What we know:
three-stranded antiparallel β-sheet, elongated
Amino acid sequence: MDSIGYTTLTRQSGLMREMDVVAHNLANISTTGFRREGVIFSEYVAALQDDPSLSMSLGNTRRVDLSQAGLSQTGGSYDLGIQGEGFFQVQTADGPRLTRAGAFTPNADGTLVTAEGHALLDAGGTAVVAPPDARSIAISQDGTLSADGVALAQIGLWQPADPLDLVHVAGTMFRADGGVVPAEGGQIMQGMLEDSNVEPVTEIARMIAVQRAYELGQSLLDREDARVRAVIQTLGQ
C-alpha cells in the first residue's frame, strides 16, 4: 500500500472512533450528569529517506465537554445538582472517582451512596452519613448537610488539578490522574438533578458530517485500489 492509502486509513480509523463517541453521546441524552465527549485529531508527520514526508491523521484523544447542563427539579432530599464548576467525589473499589450525577440514597447505616453503592465523600474525604432517624434533612448551597437543624457534614465539590488529566472511566464516572483540588464557585442544589449536556440536534448533525467524511474516504480508497489493479493488469499484459 502506498502513502495515500496509509494516510487515508489512519483518517478512517479516527473517524470510526469519532462515530463511536457520537453514538455513545446520543445513547446518554437522558443520563443524569452525563458529560458529552469529543475526539481530537492530531497530525503525525514521518520523515522518509528517499520520498516526501508521510502525514498521518490520528484521532486517538477523547475530550470531555464540561459545560453546564440544565437542572431538573425532583424534590428528593438526597437529589443534588451542581450549578457551576466541580464534581462530587465518591469512593469506589478502584479508588475515588468524580461524578456530576447527584442521585444519592442513604443505605442501612445512613451513608449516602450512588445507585452502584459508591459512598459520597465530604470535604475531608470521609463518607457522608445522614442519621436514619432524622425527621428533616437540609443541604445548603455550600454543601452543609443538616439533620433536624444540626449541621453534621459538608459535602465536598472537587475538580481535577489539571483539567487535561480527567479520564472518563465508565458511565458518569471520571478519574483524575493528577489529583483533585477543591472546586471554587460551585453550588449544590438540593432537590435537583443535572441533566446530560448532550445537545441532540448538534450531535445528530455531527454524526451526519462524520458519516459523509468516512464515505468520502472510503470512496478514495476504492478508486485508489481500482487504479492499482489497472496498473498491475496493464503491466502484466
